[in-house]
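Run folding on both entries below.
>entry_1
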Amino acid sequence: MSKVLIATRRTEELMPFLELNGFVVEQIGDNICKVTRDNELPVFVSVYDNNMYFEVDLGNISGFASKEIYFKLLDMNTEILPVSFGINNSNPDDPHLVLVESRITVDLSDQELLAVFDALELATDKAEAILAEFVQE
């Protein structure tokens, strides 16, 4: 008989789904969890209404911030889609470079969710390469 592939669809809660897929999940607030895998930077996931927000904190950038680095990061945004660089300025005295992404939780597929984490990991690697140029100077 020919090989026949069957696509299945089932629903699963977020935290158990991530754990089944090799992530370590830690609830750190009512709607916020910290998700890690292997030796990657943690991804902070928050859920509000029908939206899920993802953020990777790449650290304080004020010590070496310049027009050149901002230009390179902004230019890199076109290469790291669907995620993007941003500045978390919730503490104005301690601005952090972050990677961000968001998804609507209605009809969110497993492949779509896992692809966000893969994209964040790839973007983190690219960010580290850019930041290394400026930290060494």
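>entry_2
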Amino acid sequence: MTDSPDGTPTDERTVLVADDEAALTDSLAVWLSDEYAVRTAYSGREAIDAYDSTVDAVVLDRRMPGLSGEQVFERLRDRPGDTRVALLTATDPDFSREDGDAPQFDEYLTKPATKEEVLAAVERLLERSSPSRSG
């Protein structure tokens, strides 16, 4: 549940999309905007700044300048809440599953991901988020 501009609660779920490739970020935002409120970030730092307790799911690029997707993920995990995170990567996502020290993301998407893959991944993220956050 998020707040509308006037501060009243709404049932619309909020998804944060972060990727340093602006065209990709904007495309993902368009795909998701029919069903969700979408915030965009074009760097790891912007993702940290755009994130708050109203964000229900995050789609996060693995390789961004400055803060990587893994670094952003670790910082988001330190905050309160039950936001689920999908890693968007151009490489095989099995790297994180095999490395015991690597962050464990909730979903993995390999670039180029299709609209259907992105929508399905976000839906799975939202299904797994805490019941108090579901709309």
